[in-house]
Amino acid sequence: MKEPAHVKEIMPEALKALGEEFHINFLRNSVIYNWSEIVGESNAKKIKPLKIKFKKLYANCADSSFKSAFYIKKENFIKKINEYVQRDLVEDIIFSNVPSETKEIVEEETPDEKSKKFADGVKSMRLTDEELDEIKKSCAEIENVELRETLIRAAISREKLEKYRRKIGWHDCANCGTICAPEDVLCEKCRRLKYEKFHNYVIKLLKKQPWLTFAEVKNNVEENVPKLLDECTPESVSSLRSQMVQYLCRSLNNENQNAINLLVMLFKCVKPEDLTEKLIKNTLYELRYDLPMKGRLKLVDR
User: Fold this and answer.
1) Which of 4, 167, 182, 277 is the most buried (most CB within 10 A)?
2) DSSP per residue over the chain, as a string?
3) What are phi and psi of 40, to 5 degrees?
4) Is pLDDT at 98 greater than 60 in this prediction?
């Protein structure tokens, strides 16, 4: 007799049936609520996850000294997170030193309770005879009976899902008309595309003027691409700057002074005329753990 499937094997498929966005939100919440299991008890006591948005994990780290040391472990933490959810869910971790009490998200229900409530709500939806007939008509040309029945059941599930979402306040995306959450103006896809435009714009801007502060970046965005202004936050700009710094560190060649200057200007927000030998040396020492091994060895000799 075949062993019954474990709930951990069934759950991912059941969540996928409720829609990709619902599945991703479940995974995001799973990371938040199982943080200590993912990163270990000692790390979890010092770093509190807040939210995951656009593949960025925003975390609280009240201890500034540990925050600096954490950059050594960051890539390993990202790997552990993605292995835990078996998906490329997080690409970067953004830190804050604001006390956790001011930012911690309080949930009245656990993710499992929310998931069950949502699933029960979808299941309770009833389709009209006209809606059912329309679904059956859309699948009528499929000759394979088993396949046709499977597609009909899937279409009924999707219809119930959308019906329940509209019941609890979901609405059409202002850009493409796809149904999206009550608190959002745009759907997940349109938000992602908008953020990508912002991402590309700021990266190009910082390549030309790496010394720009957040306020200067924000003023530039407001003047040139005002539709992207709501994406311009201290966290988002800090994240992009951090990504650029890490990329430059990994590819840094000690013989390329221009690349070294760019790295220092980007990391310290200083203009070319403010660069000094001491500032460059101190900055490279501060970033020594992110530099290639060859770069570290040469740095010691300087």
Assistant:
1) 167
2) -PPPPPHHHHHHHHHHHT-HHHHHHHHHHHHHHTHHHHH-HHHHHH-EEEEEETTEEEEE---HHHHHHHTTTHHHHHHHHHHHHTS---SEEEEE-S-GGGTPPP-SS-HHHHHHHHHHHHHH----HHHHHHHHHHTTT---HHHHHHHHHHHHHHHHHHHHHHHTT-EE-TTT--EE-TT-SS-HHHHHHHHHHHHHHHHHHHHH-TT--HHHHHHHHHHH-GGGGGG--HHHHHHHHHHHHHHHHHH--TT-HHHHHHHHHHHHT--GGG--HHHHHHHHHHTGGGS-HHHHHHHHH-
3) 95, 150
4) no
Q: What is the pLDDT of residue 71?
A: 67
Rounded-to-integer distance, Cα 173 and Cα 48, Å? 32
pLDDT of 224 higher than 90: yes
Contact by Cβ (8 Å): 252, 291: yes
Question: What mean pLDDT is reported for the chain?
Answer: 81
User: Percent of the chain having pLDDT more than 90?
Assistant: 24
Separation CA 116–CA 159 (nearest Å):
19
Instruction: Give the separation between CA 36 and CA 41, rounded to whole angstroms.
Output: 5
Tokens of 42: 């000692």
